[in-house]
């Protein structure tokens, strides 16, 4: 897989993650059920499957801890976050904490793009600010912060 194909597949995996996490919040599906359901989708064939299959269970298993981190970064109660914003932030915080192979600028850029694609009109600005603060605290060595 060429780097451009690989990064495109990773972006598509993040898009499916947003959809799966949104569905988990709205419909209350369990992680195993979501994995099985998304594995059956045609879109799954075009994603970085290893990334998706690692990220979704990790995010589901550590969602409370991830939300605690997010709660310390945001300027409103966690319950007031839009489900899309929360999904994007869960992915971003997961990547900043657990995927140090992904540069923090990529995490922020991907989060902003996900918010633009799936979120409210100016939600991407909020995601940018939150992930920037998170990167400073979680990746201080990398960011120089």
Protein architecture, described:
By secondary structure, the protein is mostly helical. The chain has one domain: NusB-like (N-utilizing Substance Protein B Homolog, Chain A, Orthogonal Bundle). The protein is built from 8 helices and no strands. Helix 1 packs parallel to helix 3, helix 1 packs across helix 5 and helix 4 packs across helix 5. The model is unreliable at 1-5 (pLDDT under 50).
Q: Give the ordered list of helices and strands.
A: HHHHHHHH
Query: How many strand units?
Result: 0
Return the structural class. mainly alpha
The average pLDDT score comes to: 93
CATH class: Mainly Alpha
Shape annotation: globular
Helicity range of the residues? Answer: over 70%
| Rg result | 14 Å
Query: Spans of 5+ residues with little confidence (pLDDT < 50)?
Result: 1-5
How many angstroms does the end-to-end distance come to?
A: 34 Å
**The CATH architecture:** Orthogonal Bundle
Q: CATH H-level name... which superfamily?
A: NusB-like
Characterize this entry briefly.
The chain is built from 8 helices and no strands.
Keywords:
145 residues; mainly alpha; N-utilizing Substance Protein B Homolog, Chain A; 74% helix; globular; disordered N terminus
What's the SSE blueprint?
Layout: H1 3-27, H2 31-39, H3 49-61, H4 63-71, H5 83-98, H6 104-118, H7 123-138, H8 140-143
């Amino acid at each position: 897989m060429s780097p451009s194909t690989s990064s495109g597949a990773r972006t598509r995996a993040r898009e499916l993650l947003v959809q799966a996490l949104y569905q988990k919040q709205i419909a209350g599906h369990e992680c195993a059920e979501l994995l099985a359901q998304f594995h059956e989708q045609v879109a799954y064939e075009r994603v970085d499957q290893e990334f998706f299959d690692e990220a979704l269970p990790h995010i589901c298993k550590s969602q409370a801890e991830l939300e605690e981190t997010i709660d310390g970064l945001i300027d409103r109660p966690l319950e007031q976050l839009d489900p899309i914003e929360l999904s994007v932030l869960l992915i971003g915080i997961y990547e900043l904490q657990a995927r140090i192979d992904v540069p923090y600028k990529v995490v922020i850029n991907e989060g902003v793009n996900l918010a633009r694609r799936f979120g409210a009109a100016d939600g991407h600005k909020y995601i940018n600010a939150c992930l920037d603060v998170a990167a400073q605290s979680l990746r201080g060595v990398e960011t120089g912060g």
